[in-house]
Amino acid sequence: MQISQQLNKVKVLCRAPLKVSRRLLTGRASFRQRLTAGLVFLVLAVFFGFLWLAGHYKIGLWPLPCGFKQRYDLPCPGCGVTTSVMAFAQGKIFESFYIQPAAALLCCVLIVVAFLAFLIAVFGVYFSFINRFFAEVKVRYIILALIIIVAAGWAVTLSRALAANN
Asked: For residues 150 and 102, is the Cβ–Cβ distance under 8 A?
């Protein structure tokens, strides 16, 4: 093989194009979409950053005791959410899922949203599935899914509490 052929072969191998399905991308994001995505990313970054700092410096975020737990001696649906989110923000993901699975799952969703918002804001790439998602999925279905996720997380914490009491 000649040297020029070897160089062309190296160029082809090193410059592999990024294969992204055309169905995922609709083109460039508008300025308004990029600005909105930037704000979403900024809010989520500040949220997780604040929780990381609060966990690092051992700052309590909820000063009041849980009234439901005091009255019934059982955890409420929100018990463990703050602790779980703080553990997630510190990178203790498995611990976060153990403390409160619903909060950890919602944190995972927020991380994916933040990543997509970052891609849209910085690179201007807009994904067509975002439009399809908001066009096809009704708000009541999202609320219903959140209620089911929180109820499932509460069921896990309730079962742990009942097992610990027996």
From this structure: yes
In a domain, 16, yes or no: no
Query: Where in the sequence is the domain holding 87, given as residue range(s)?
Result: 26-126+136-165
Structural domains in the chain (count): 1
Q: What is the pTM of this model?
A: 0.75
Question: How high is the pLDDT of residue 24?
Answer: 54
Rounded to 5°, angle at Cα 97 from 95 and 98: 60
CA quadruple 110, 111, 117, 122: dihedral, nearest 10: 160
- DSSP for residue 73: S
Average pLDDT over every residue of 106-131:
92
The residue type at 165: N
Using a 10 angstrom Cβ sphere, with 0-12 exposed, 13-18 middle and 19 or more buried, the burial of residue 46 is exposed
Strand partners, 135: none
The 8-class DSSP code of residue 60 comes to: -
On whether residue 8 sits in a domain, the answer given is no
On whether residue 7 sits in a domain, the answer given is: no
User: Quick check: helix, strand or coil at residue 108?
Assistant: helix
Tokens encoding 92? 């203790």
